[in-house]
Amino acid sequence: MRSNSTFHSDVLTPFVAATEKFASHNAFCINGVFHSYRQLAETISAIRAEVKKMGAADNNVGLVANDDLETYAAIFALWFEGKSYVPVNPDTPAERNRNVLQQAGATVVIDSSDQPLYTEFNVVRSKELKAVAINLEPLPFDDEERAYIFFTSGTTGVPKGVPITRANLAGFIKAFFDLGITMDETDKCLQMFELTFDLSVMSYLAPLLKGACVYTIPKNKIKFNYIADLLEEHNLTVALMVPSIIHYLRPYLDEIHCESMRFSLFCGEALPLDVTSEWANSIPNAKIMNVYGPTEDTIFCTHYTYNRTGENKASNGLLCIGKAMNGTDTIIINENKEILPANEKGELCLGGVQLTPGYWKNEEKNKEAFFHIMYNGEMTRFYKTGDLCQADDAGDIMYLGRIDSQVKVQGFRVELSEIEFYAKEYLDKTNAVAIAFTNQLHNTEIGMVIESAEFDTKPMIEYMKSKLPSYMIPTQLRFINTFPLNTNGKIDRKVLKEKF
Amino acid sequence: MDRALITEKLTTIFRSVFNDQAIVLRDDLTANDVANWDSLSHMLMIGEAEKEFSVKFKLKELGKLEDVKSLIDLLEQKIQSK
Looking at the predicted complex, does its ipTM rise above 0.85? Predict the structure, then answer.
């Protein structure tokens, strides 16, 4: 089923309606402080006026991702002005963020920090703007224009950009509500993600289209603790989380009883069935859904509903990722790019309304990752996810693992080779291998094995911290005189993994 | 167990979990002051403290922890009521 959604009809129109109809309702709870829809609309209008004054010719505008009303308002301000946002996390090394902003060709950066972080750009200081009359009239724009570009870990030390168009995002929103997820002005919804992570988009956008309230997590808080407090004190009703949150909460699940929760979604990492069953007892009235998808296919694109009373489809104890959402096509292919029948293992590929037009200015990667194939009698464009999957006779897809060396840490995509790149750059001729392993809390952690006698690694880690976001920094280090090789003569990563 | 001894034992745990031998525990020390103090290492630190002092924390107690002082207060109270 193809959707005929547009960014105007499915995103901007309902948003403007919510700001008018629920002007005095809370739109956000940020660090314990509530902000109304009217305040949101005023802030958007003020930022918008300033962006207009800057007269930026380029479509992509940098956004310093702070946890405040101004940062969220900036996203909508840009959308009403026909522009797209490129978020950068202020805690990520500045050099990496500059690379992202330069790659995107941004000349303007919106920043709510007390001191602007990137002074070589034209900065809109969004906390210091004069009030203006509310103006939520969108400029005319094409749905093929971008809504945002998110940059993810690349293999060669350079982040790669995934542009998502307005049509992609409208297609997602339509398909999301088609899942039967209902929200209204009484809902209280969790937004636990950094704004540089695309799961944040569903978490703030869907509630704001319905007049609901979005609850964010302050940056300096221990996330799972803060979420548990929000559940209890504010009676949240909708939450999209990464599974690592319930791994952390697992020893304490008997203390959590949240009857208000109606929809509990998981994404970003494989979801184990056993911990899901325990979580289900803590939220007795909620529908639990496992959703799946890469940034390239706009937030998520397949869904599976956990069955509280009967059997659940799982593989290796991991809950199935289910079927495509409306407007998405899924196929599983072999190495020759031939579509495989049910029950055969292969690479999952995604096509349809949510699919990105391709990596930002990266033809080489685009040739690798996207291809056309005859599907339902039409030449259709698909994206190779790198995920090894298998569909059953009913069409439900099981996730079996990665084909390459990409891993997920706290939901973030990490190319192990990018971590190795910076370690080796520092070590100069000494080899190092990054390993993802499962720690005692069942979360993914990054370890590193260095082919050397033991030495003080602090300077190396400091160097890596100046280049990479914190979730990519190895937490455990081992030394080995010579790397073991497998029968193909490659470094035997499996043997190295046993050291953790 | 007095506060000095709790602090001493906790210092050993902090130095090991957060991988920094230079950590000195002050009452107002928070996650912002320690480079490796995130959700994961926080849980590991809590687990180590539970083992060392033979106590079990409740989620609500953990949620109220603001700084090292509140952690030591909680430990003191837990140890006394054992």
Answer: no
Q: Which residue has 């937030």 as its token pair?
A: A299
How many domains would you assign to chain A?
2
Report the pLDDT value the prediction gives residue A103, as an integer from 0 to 100.
Answer: 95
Q: Do A255 and B30 touch (CB under 8 A)?
A: no
Residue A35 within a domain: yes
CB contacts < 8 A (A, B): 43
Residue at which a domain ends, from A285, A319, A353: A319
Write down which residue in A319, A337, A372 finishes a domain. Answer: A319
A411 and A305, same structural domain? Answer: no
Residues from chain B contacting residue A256 (CB–CB below 8 Å): 59
Whole domain around residue A464: which residue ranges? 407-497
Q: How many whole angstroms separate alpha carbon B60 and alpha carbon A257? A: 12
Q: Which of A217, A222, A476 would best serve as a mutation to test chain B binding (most B beta carbons within 10 A)?
A: A222
- B3-80 belongs to which CATH class? mainly alpha
pTM of the model: 0.89
Compute the radius of gyration of chain A from its Cα atoms: 23
Binding-face residues of B in 32-71 toward A, CB within 8 A: 32, 35-36, 38-44, 58-60, 62-63, 65
